[in-house]
Write a structure and sequence with these properties.
The chain is about 5% helix and about 40% strand. It is mostly beta strands. The strands form six sheets. Strands 1-27-23-22-21-20 form a six-stranded antiparallel sheet, with no helix packed on it. Strand 8 and strand 9 (about 140-150) form a beta hairpin. Residues about 1-55, about 370-380 and about 385-400 have low confidence and may be disordered.
């Protein structure tokens, strides 16, 4: 093991790097509580209802822009449908809402996916919902739209897509060069998933249909999954390319150009891994790894504390794992990754009452077991960096290339 910076010799003891920093009045910002942010504290739980913390940064795409704003989708009331994207200011006090509720045919619609462009414009893949279940889960859809807002929140346009929904469930969006759209999705055949894609012009006209999965790959390694991302492909735009992937290493990553042509595939070399929350920084792909689920687990299980959460980092050229982080923090989701800082959002369960907060994890220097701070740190939330077992740490670790 080694801390993030990687010493020249292997460390046998557990090395910790950096406590997370909660945004509070005494630590680089504010949580949604106290002081003059009482209105935000009152309103945000209605937009982000209790029980949805695990969705932030995991099932849903969350992002952070260069100005430090956090973008996250939120539910409509207490149902499963997503009706808006929030832009939370860096001070964690104020926010702006980009909602589909005022739009024709989408007043009861659902945002399937959304993307934030470098210029601050937001594009949402939104579907008209024709029927909800008794527990307000969308089960029947009508027309599909691209909704475009400028950074001020003004609606730029609402474009209906000529989507062929016959055997195609759309789950992901990427903006192509020239303003065209790439929509990725899937069809399920027995216990297999086939990844599909359709591309559209700026006016919503269908341009191309692609069968990426061909014969399909196994839907999951068990009867249940921890996130629908295992089934639902998404598109991540980075490095002048578009990476289409679903949350399992049994399915290759499909690499597109920004014009929508398939350039190749990449196999992630971590057999049997299921995951969500993929983020790309330069040549790194980081994901939130799922703990295995046994098929015959008891209805109730008892644990002495929170479970371990792993974040492996893959090299996008080789597919190899080049770094791995872990900590014991299950109630927050990853928003942004760089090689220096990881940003998270979710519920701070250490507070009474529980509050919504922004968290940071930052590399620190190694800590030995006999260090006077070790006991305190071991009882805190920490982010730990692991080296792959088959890789010897060197002075310049792979992730700092």
């Amino acid at each position: 093991m080694s801390i993030l910076h990687g010493p020249k010799t292997r460390q046998n003891a557990r090395d910790y790097c950096a406590n997370h920093l909660r945004r509070s009045p005494s630590a680089r910002g504010d949580t949604f509580r106290d002081r003059a942010d009482r209105d935000a504290a009152n309103h945000l739980p209605e937009i982000c209802p209790e029980g949805q913390a695990g969705r932030l940064g995991r099932i849903w795409r969350c992002q952070r822009d260069s100005a430090g704003n956090i973008f996250t989708p939120t539910n409509r009331r207490y149902g499963s449908a997503v009706n808006s994207v929030l832009r939370i200011a860096p001070d964690a006090v104020s926010y702006s809402q980009f909602s589909i509720d005022p739009l024709p045919q989408l007043e009861d619609g659902d945002i399937t996916d959304w993307v934030l462009e470098p210029n601050g414009h937001i594009y949402a893949l939104a579907r008209r919902v024709l029927k909800y279940s008794d527990v307000t889960v969308p089960i029947e859809f009508g027309d599909t739209f691209i909704v475009h807002w400028d950074p001020s929140g003004k609606l730029v346009n609402q474009v209906r897509l000529a989507l062929d929904a016959n055997g195609f469930s759309p789950t992901g969006l990427a903006l192509l060069a020239g303003g065209d759209y790439l929509i990725v999705g899937y069809t399920r055949i027995g216990d297999k998933i086939r990844v599909l894609a359709q591309s559209f012009g700026v006016n919503g006209g269908l341009m191309n249909k692609l069968d990426l999965g061909h014969d399909g790959t196994k839907a999951s390694k068990g009867r249940t999954v921890r996130s629908k991302r295992v089934y639902h492909p998404m598109a991540v735009k980075a490095n002048g390319l578009i990476y289409v992937l679903r949350g399992t290493t049994t399915e290759p990553v499909y690499v597109f150009s920004e014009t929508g042509s398939l350039e190749g595939t990449l196999l992630l070399k971590y057999p049997g891994l299921e995951f969500d929350s993929p983020h790309i920084f330069k040549n790194d792909l980081i994901v939130h790894a799922h703990r295995p689920i046994a098929d015959n687990v008891p209805t109730f299980t008892f644990r002495s504390g929170p479970g371990r959460v792993d974040y492996p980092v893959f090299d996008l050229h080789t597919g190899e794992v080049v770094q791995e982080y872990y900590w014991n923090e299950e109630t927050i989701g990853l928003v942004c990754y760089t090689r220096d800082v990881l940003t998270f959002i979710g519920q701070d369960v250490s507070s009474t009452p529980t509050v919504w907060a922004i968290f940071f994890a930052k590399p620190g220097r190694p800590m030995k077991q006999n260090d006077s701070r070790a006991k305190k740190v071991q009882n805190s939330r920490v982010l730990v960096a692991n080296w792959p077992r088959n890789q010897e740490p060197v002075a310049t670790p792979p992730h700092s290339r």
